[in-house]
Each structure stands twice: as C-alpha cells, then as structure tokens.
Design a protein that fits this description.
Blueprint (H helix, E strand, L loop, with lengths): L3 E5 L6 H10 L3 E6 L12 E4 L7 H8 L4 E6 L4 H7 L4 E9 L35 H18 L4 E7 L1 E3 L9 H8 L4 E5 L5 E2 L1 E3 H13 L1 H4 L3 E3 L6 E2 H12 L4 E5 L23 H7 L7 H14 L7 H6 L5 H18 L11 H4 L11
Helix pairs in contact: 1-6, 2-3, 3-4, 8-10
C-alpha cells in the first residue's frame, strides 16, 4: 500500500525539494498551501488550498477532509496549531522551526558576551521569559508542545531549527540587496564592520536533504532536534565577493561600522555578531553532507533572481525593508570618508621600539605632535 505524506507549505525555498524527494521515495504526496503562487511540481501531487495560519486546529482538520497520513512535514504556518491538529492523524510529524529560539540569536543584547561559536542544539533558549523576546519564546513553547505530544504517543516527532534559507522561491531574498545593486550599476557598496560577520545559512535543497534524511531514518531521528545549514558558512564579505564574481561586477567596497550605516541593516539584520550553527549532531547521527556546495547554491540563487526579479517596492522588497536609496548611501559614504580624513589629523606618537613586530601603522597622513 502506498505511503501518504502531507507537506504543509511546500512552495518555499526548501519545500519543492522535499516534495520531489517524497515522490521519488514512492509517497503519495499532498501539499496544503495558500495557492498564492504555484510552482513546478510533479503532476501526481495533490493540492489543498487553505491558509495554514488557521484560527484553530479544527480548521486544519476540516480542510484535510478526514485524511490521515503516514508522515506530515510542516514547513509553514502556525506550527503549534498544526501540531495539535495532527494528533492521531499521522505516525510521523516533522516540524520546521527556527534558530530565533536561542537567547541572543535575534537580539544580541540578550547575550552581551556573544553567542557560543558554534551554537549547539542544547544552547540556552528563550524558554523562561516572554518579555525578553516574545517571538523566540513562542518558538520554544511550540517545540515544547510538539515534544509533549511525542512523549504522549500522539505521533513520533522530529524538529529542525532552520537558519536563513536561500535559493529560488525565497520570500525575503536577502541576496537581492546585493544583486539589485549590481543590476542597478552601483559602483560602491557599504560593507558593515568590514563584512567580517559569519553566519550559517542553508541552501534550500540542502535543507530539504536534511529533512528527508529524517524521513529515511525514523529510528534515529524521532524525538530529536537538529540544526541544518551549509557546511561552510560564509562571511558577508565573502558572499559579496562571490556574487560580484558570478555577475562579473567590480565595485568599491566601503567599510563602515554598522552602527553608523543604517542602509546596511537589511543585509546584516541582527547585528555583526557571528551566528554559526554546530552541525555535528545531524552529520554524525543522520550522515548529513551538503548536496549543493555553498558557492554553487549562491550561484543558483543569483541566476534565479536575475531571471525572476522582485518587483521594485513589491512584496519581496517590502519584506527586506531595503529602500535602495542610493543617494542616501552616497551621503553616508562621503560623511564617513570625511570622518576618516579628520581622524587622520589627530596628533598621535606611536611607541616606536619593536613596533614592526606587533603592528602595521595605517598609511595615512598625520599631524605633527
């Protein structure tokens, strides 16, 4: 008898790869999504159109019209309501959550000493104080509900904490902030804090591969929480260089402290602290390895964005909150360069003995002491 799978969402950056992977494994696949946009999927996939942000679990059950499934993969929607609705309606429940569960992930001030590097699955979460970060707290409460249902025997659960997912069909494509500036012919690009911030992202196909590893290995994955991510996280500086090379563009990279450069906030959203996920658990327990190397994933993303350009001031750009105000960016650059010129005139006498062993002075004109 054919196994049945339900994918809630399924049209974002990882969903289509999950759906195709399930079909290739012999599942009869149904996707529940809003129907706001259709993407190429195998003809045998059934579609149920409905908003996964249902008001109550019963609304989800009603939309499914009494169907039950061998596995449910929830990639979108009000996850806690979905988790409640799936009690007794599936044997396996695989939930896609997020890294904002960690204290300090979204709001660096909550972890003033910085996040651990890398962040493990047992790193401190926002489990005890909703006033610190309500969004992250609700993610943790949802995870708790899912695992309580798992322990109660309603289904066998696995949770994935997704970082930033990139690739085709990404709702808020952060790479567009770089790609559009190149397409618009910008000759200068502001790099906040030198672009040295390193962050784990995950190409959509890699994320789907991780989820399908859990489908294939229920005995190992049930009751577990896993990170996903590209094996080689990039700094922002490297990402800009890779995209520039792919698009054959040369420009001046202007390094400005993030706090002094508001135009950079859309592409360095939560500060310049590193956000690197530890992938040891999923690699050792499920055998995860990237199916698409990170630089190849960036190239595929860039090509897709060039062929499917977000509309100016459209939904994607509104989600990015990037005004693409180049005149303002130039004013920030000019003001900062003037600041540098003035700082270079501040009198300063270096400690000369052995200086070359410890430091290299910047080659800028200085006033006499």
């Amino acid at each position: 008898m054919m196994m049945k799978a339900l994918v809630i969402g399924g049209t974002g950056p990882s969903g289509p790869y999950v759906v195709r992977g399930l079909v290739s494994r012999g599942y009869k696949v149904t996707i529940l999504h809003r129907g706001a946009h259709e993407i190429p999927l195998p003809d045998e996939v059934d579609h149920i159109h409905g908003d996964a942000h249902f008001q109550a679990p019963g609304d989800i059950v009603e939309a499914l019209k009494g169907q039950t499934f061998d596995v449910v993969i929830a990639t979108y929607g009000r996850l806690r309501r979905i988790a409640e609705a799936m009690k007794g309606r599936t044997q396996r429940f695989i939930a896609i959550g997020g890294t904002p569960a960690y204290k300090g992930w979204r709001k660096p001030a909550l972890a003033p000493e910085g996040l651990p590097t890398p962040v493990r699955e047992d790193t401190t979460t926002l489990h005890d104080n909703p006033d610190l970060d309500l969004y992250g707290y609700l993610i943790v409460m949802t995870e708790r509900t899912i695992m309580e249902n798992h322990r109660a025997g309603h289904y066998q659960a696995t949770i994935f904490r997704y970082p930033q997912i990139y690739g085709p069909w990404q709702p808020g494509p952060r790479d567009w902030s770089i790609v559009r500036r190149i397409l618009d012919g910008r000759k200068r690009f502001i790099l906040p804090d030198g672009g040295l911030t390193i962050e784990t992202w995950c190409y959509g196909e890699n994320a789907a591969h991780a989820v399908l590893l859990a489908v294939d290995q229920p005995d190992r994955s049930v009751g577990q929480i896993y990170h996903v991510g590209d094996e080689s996280p990039m700094s922002l500086r490297r990402r800009v260089h890779v995209i520039s090379r792919i698009m054959g563009h040369e420009w001046e990279l202007v390094e400005i402290p993030r706090a002094l450069a508001p135009p950079t906030f859309p592409y360095l959203t939560h500060g310049s602290h590193h956000r690197i996920l530890d992938l040891t658990k999923i690699k050792t327990e499920l055998g995860y390895r990237d199916v698409v190397p990170a630089e190849e994933g960036v190239e595929k993303t860039v090509r897709w964005l060039q062929e499917n350009r977000p509309a100016p001031r459209g939904q994607e750009e509104m989600q990015l909150k990037d005004p693409f105000d180049y005149a303002a960016e130039d004013r920030f650059i000019e003001a900062f360069q003037e600041c540098i010129r003035r700082m270079a005139l501040v009198p300063w006498t270096p400690w000369e003995p052995g200086l070359s062993r410890y430091a290299v002075l910047p080659d800028v004109p200085r006033a006499s002491p």
